[in-house]
Design brief:
Number of domains of chain B: 1
Strand order of the largest sheet of chain B: 1-2
Radius of gyration of chain A: 19 Å
Number of helices of chain B: 14
Oligomer: heterodimer
Number of helices of chain A: 13
CATH topology of chain B: ABC transporter involved in vitamin B12 uptake, BtuC
Number of strands of chain B: 2
Helix content of chain B: over 70%
Number of strands of chain A: 2
Order of helices and strands of chain B: HHHHHHEHHHHEHHHH
Distance between the termini of chain A: 43 Å
Distance between the termini of chain B: 47 Å
Order of helices and strands of chain A: HHHHHEEHHHHHHHH
Strand content of chain A: under 5%
CATH class of chain B: Mainly Alpha
Shape of chain B: globular
Amino acid sequence: MSIDLFINQLFSGLVRSALYFLVTSGLTLLFGVVGVLNMAHFSFYMVASYVTWTFSRILLGYNFSFFIALTMSAICMCTFAWIIERLFFRHLYNRMMPEQLLITFSIIYVIDDLTKALWGATPLYIAKPDFLTQAITVGAISFPMAGIFVLALGIVTGLGTWFLLARTRLGRILRAAYSYKEMISCLGIPIKRIYLAMFMLSVLLVSIAGSAWPLVGMVDLGQGHAILIECFCVMVIGGMGSFVGTAVASLLVGLTYSFGILIVPKMATLLIFCLAGVILTFRPWGLMGTVGRMH
Amino acid sequence: MFGVDTANIKPMTLVVGLSVLVVMVGLGFVLDTFSVQVLTEALIMSLFAMSFALLYGHTGLLSFGQGAYFAFGAYGFALALTKLHLPFFLCILIGIFAAGVWAWIMGYLCVRLSGIYFAIMTVVVSQCTFYILFQWYSVTGGDNGIQGLLPPEFLVNARHYYLFILLVVALASAVFYIIVNSPFGLSLKCIRENIVRSTFVGIKTRNHMHKAFILSGLLAGLAGILFCIHTRSVVPQIANWQSSGNAVFMGILGGASSTLGPFLGALIWVLLDAFVSGYTERWPLVIGLILFAITFFAPGGLMGMISSYFTKRTRRRITET
């Protein structure tokens, strides 16, 4: 393998990892703190892409249209998350695990079909801002700006969320909820509001992922299901509920995919699956999950 | 292997089962061809729903990946029929065997995980199966699937095929009923109620879960084979999450823990599919809303609602007298 090819694959693997990380981190955090696995997370991801597409179309021709679209879609998705939480999700927290899964699973049908009704079934492309269509060339390798931007978005969002979790009061409460839920309400902290905040944070993260996706791919109805295997694998490899574990696992999975595609072109997704299988056989709680915490 | 105990099988069930069978045979002669085809599909789908019910309703394992075994059975059958040109009934056995082997391998992986990890892994397995079938163009035909799966002469007629399906489903559900009520089935219920205590009383939980997984894979595989003969073709989409979701929907709708639940769920699903999809193209929306309502308000499904109604009525009678 030549060094150029190596760097090229490394770069595309990193971009991929950034996307996986953005999609999965919200899901895994929500599961860790609240204890609900939101099967409809990938549908939110898809909706976020569509909303970004709509805003960037409305704002076509203005400066910074994409960034405004990104912000606006984040705001829309958070409002949407707030409504959904108030209507349905708050009733799920005390349910049994299978019921939670089934209810969030039924939401997939509803959201997917409504998306199809609103935006149609044809794939959509976003008009990228000028500077994102260019590429930086170093020697014989060229790095597309869109990829660099997605990577940067992933890193910045990751660091920001890490800062929120590790250094702020809210983050401390969220981490406390991860380890001991009952004690939180004993300390007089309104746990319902914490759950709401966590749900909105998770949707915010997935909304950023959904806005980043149109830069490197096309917006379509199957995008959520296309990324599902990889993201679930990232989630279980990293350990459910572990934020740092998700970051490590998404790097691992992204790089496995981009290098695996050189060796077994059609089977790269299966390679990830095998990786997850091997890791789970030896460490059923994932790389950085809490030992014995299986829910 | 399962230690069949006839003492658990009530004569009442036998009577109900046989009379349902007689009514179904009669319907096969009375109804018009379209209704017979709808009933055939309902019977096939009830096997698929049963495979979900065995895992979820009886063992407490929530599987979102039944489509994988459904498709594996169908493809095993279709490949044996079109590529190897083996006799029809041998092909059916090969298809069931293929689904069983796939369930054995994947079950080995999945039952090591519990709760949420299990559910996730089944989704991943089913999507992976879909990718294999979709991308292995030279063998599976990719997106086009495999066409022209004609049954032998005497089954081409819709009525004959209906009776054949009825026979197979009756046998399969009798076996299912016996297994569920055998000591093995009771230990599965024990695992569902409390896995830690089941380990304490000496049930080999992982081994039992693996067996249940394989059995449900076999059932799903059989359903897949019968379905692909019914439609005369097989496409990779039967392996994806929507197909697995159908099993979930039918099982939950009817009530996964009851014996009749899968039949009721499959019947309603097929009727909805045959008649509602004619009126509206927002069919997934309808499915989603029904599934949501059932899981949100009546987790026991329709059979759960019926049996809780009877329980309440009996209780009321007892208090009145």
